[in-house]
Amino acid sequence: MNPALARLLCCAALLLSGAVSWGANKLPGTVTVVSAQAAETAGMLKLNAQVDLGLSKPVLSALDNGLPISFELYVEIRQLRDWWWKEPVVSLTRRMRLEYHELSRQYVIEDQNTGTQKVVSEQSAALQELGTVRDIPIARTTKLDPDTHYRARMRAEVSVDEIPLALRASGYLSDDWHMRSDWYTWSLR
Question: For 86-109, how does the pLDDT look when each residue is reduced to its tens digit (9 = 90+)?
Fold first, then answer.
């Protein structure tokens, strides 16, 4: 069979089976930034975003067996030039951690940058909450020139570096743990 035809049939089968839909289902083993925007509030640029965390079965199993899962959110703001990107004007890394507590049967979401925690009783609700980014300060507006055009971009990923040392090697070697979104880019000014 022609390889191009085989790929086309495979894609059609996925679409017909409902495995791929516009933003409704998270494919296992994928992290996707669905939307992101920055709004100015009281002299501060704040990020609001939605990330779909379709974690792989081995990662979900590890989570339910007590292994904390760490996530990193990267945000950059860059000034545009005619032919070349400049260095980031703003660069931010936000670290989050999700952990299941067997005794209480609850999921704890911790913002490792601020130390704040939120407790959720269901895994799906925990992943939804973790993927919802609300009013995260990314820059003072005085740091940005009002007459300059900027582009912002954001990426999210599961951090293999944060799993326990005894399991880290298998995390590096397994595709199940390598989940990183593409850069989501938008215009600021």
Answer: 778 899 999 999 999 999 999 999
**Alpha-carbon distance 3 to 147, whole Å?**
51
**Residue 18 covered by a domain:** no
Question: The tokens 């980031």 sit on which residue?
Answer: 88
Tell me how far apart the alpha carbons of residues 98 and 123 are, in angstroms, rounded to a whole number.
Answer: 10
Pairwise CA distance, residues 146 & 117, whole Å: 36
Q: Is the pTM of this model over 0.70?
A: yes
In a domain, 11, yes or no: no
Is position 45 within any domain?
A: yes
Q: Calculate the CA 101 to chain-centre distance.
A: 23
Domain enclosing residue 127, as ranges: 26-187
Based on the structure, what is the number of domains in the chain? Answer: 1
Find all residues with CB under 8 Å of 180, minimum gap 6, and list them. 31, 155, 156, 157, 158
| C-beta separation of 97 from 71 below 8 A | yes
In the numeric block, the tokens 């779909």 are attached to 52
Alpha helices of the chain — where are they, by DSSP H? 3-17, 57-64, 123-130, 165-173
How far is residue 49 from each of residues 52, 100, 136, measured CA to CA in Å? 10, 24, 9
Residue 64 has φ and ψ, to the nearest 5°, of -70, -15
Is 91 a domain residue? yes
DSSP 180: B
CB 92 within 8 A of CB 85: no
Token digits for 171?
Answer: 């995390």
